[in-house]
Amino acid sequence: MKINNSERLSFKVMDKNDAKDLFELDQDTEVMKYINGGKMTTMKEIQDVYIPRMASYTNKEKGWGIWGVTINQSQEFIGWVLVRPMEFFSDEPEFDNIELGWRFVQKSWGKGYATEAAKHIMQALVDNKSATEYSAIAETENVASINIMKKLGMQFQKNDLHKDPLGDLQVDYYSVKV
């Protein structure tokens, strides 16, 4: 699946060759605040944990993976949008419910890039009939991410423990059926 450029942004599925961009994004404690309490990721963790984890759910035909986001005008990498089945790392992944997530460099915040990217990618998935539901999770205090979820048409479903091999987290679940 290919995702065409949006007005300001371009997209590509990330892979092991993007380790440097993944690493640099995770070096800002504010970016990591609602991911793991602000802990920066090491390059060893990127190589040994995150690259294999990303590879496990990447499926270019279905549009699953981490979509790197670049500003068209400057070709600057500013972040990514995650696309994978909800509960992918559980015994019962939800293949018809696609999880969207995002992580962007702090200097890009407040400019609508994350919303534009998530909305554009979600629309491409909808047009491709990839799923009937789209969901996202965030800590209740992560107001910026929750605002993006609402702009995607998602509505609050529940606050619950999200189980993940990298650590469980109490989060708000939002979703929209298409």
Can you describe what's shown?
This protein is α+β, with helices and mostly antiparallel strands and 178 residues long. Helix content is 30%, strand content 31%. The chain contains 5 helices and 7 strands. It has helices at 19-25, 29-36, 43-57, 113-127, 143-151; strands spanning 9-13, 65-71, 77-86, 94-104, 133-138, 155-162, 169-177. Strands 1-2-3-4-5-7-6 form a 7-stranded mixed β-sheet, sandwiched between helices. α1 (19-25) packs across α3. The longest helix is centred in the N-terminal third of the chain and has 15 residues, at 43-57. The radius of gyration is 15 Å and the shape is globular.
Observed structural traits:
single chain; 178 residues; alpha+beta; Aminopeptidase; seven-stranded mixed sheet; 5 helices
The rounded distance between the terminal residues' Cα atoms is 19 Å
Strand segment tally? 7
User: What structural category arises from helix and sheet content?
Assistant: alpha+beta
Largest beta sheet: strand ordering: 1-2-3-4-5-7-6
* CATH fold assignment: Aminopeptidase
Question: Largest sheet, if any?
Answer: 7 strands, mixed
Overall geometry: globular
Measured by DSSP, the beta-strand proportion falls in 25-35%
Average pLDDT metric:
97
Oligomer: single chain
What is the CATH superfamily?
A: Gcn5-related N-acetyltransferase (GNAT)
Return the CATH class: Alpha Beta
Domain module count: 1
In sequence order, what are the helices and strands, one letter per element? EHHHEEEHEHEE
- Which consecutive residue ranges, at least 5 long each, have pLDDT under 50? none
Number of helices: 5
CATH architecture type: 3-Layer(aba) Sandwich
Kindly provide the radius of gyration, computed on alpha-carbon positions and rounded to a whole number of angstroms.
Answer: 15 Å
How much helical structure, as a percent, in the residues? 25-40%
